[in-house]
Amino acid sequence: MLRSLVLVAILAGSSTWQAAAPAPAAPTYDAKYTDADGQVYTGTLTFAVDAKGVVTGTMKLTDPLEIVATLGGTVKDGKWTFDYPFEIPSQGCLGTVKGTGDISADSKTVQGSAMSSGGCSEQPIQLTFTLTRQAK
After folding, report:
1. Cβ proximity of 57 and 48 under 8 Å
2. What percent of the chain lies above the pLDDT cut of 90?
3. 130: closest CA among 98, 108, 115, 105?
4. Which of 82, 71, 68 has its CA nearest to residue 112?
5. In this structure, what DSSP letter does residue 104 have?
């Protein structure tokens, strides 16, 4: 009986039996990418940076067509450096996008440039982009 009470007391005080709190959701940003010909692509991104500077998140551009990706890269001294794959599901195309972006001090905007290759284009496409954090 005493063993049972001691075991119950130990388990009741153990933090390992408590469920871990879920990680906060990554902030959502409105995304606008513009190619060298002036074609604009818009959608949203989730964008989070961990304590080591590793970027995680997703991209879903929806206009004029759907382009999806899992974000990657690193942030150091307010600059995001990335190289990650993307997909255009409706056309069955895969490609990569590589570039850099400057993150504002308040993390409300990210602006930069990138080069898209592969996908449905025979030639690489130069892009500029602006990400604007949505209000909570």
Report:
1. yes
2. 75
3. 108
4. 82
5. P
Measured between alpha carbons, how far is 86 from 98 in angstroms, rounded to an integer?
11
- Is the pLDDT reported for residue 136 higher than 90? no
At 29-73, the pLDDT tens digits run: 999 999 999 999 999 999 899 999 999 999 999 999 999 999 999
Question: How many other C-beta atoms are found inside a 10 Å radius of the C-beta of residue 123?
Answer: 7
* Three-class SS state of 121: coil
d(CA 24, CA 75): 19
Q: What's the pLDDT at 25?
A: 76
Do residues 53 and 76 lie in contact, with contact meaning Cβ atoms separated by under 8 Å? yes
Taking CA atoms, 21 is separated from 47, 60, 126, in Å, by 20, 27, 41
Cα–Cα separations (whole angstroms), residue 125 to 24, 76, 101: 34, 25, 17
Residues 92-120 have a mean pLDDT of: 95
Q: Report whether the peptide linkage leading into residue 64 is cis, meaning its omega lies within 30 degrees of zero.
A: yes
* Measured CA distances, 74 to 38, 56, 83, 106 (Å): 28, 9, 10, 18
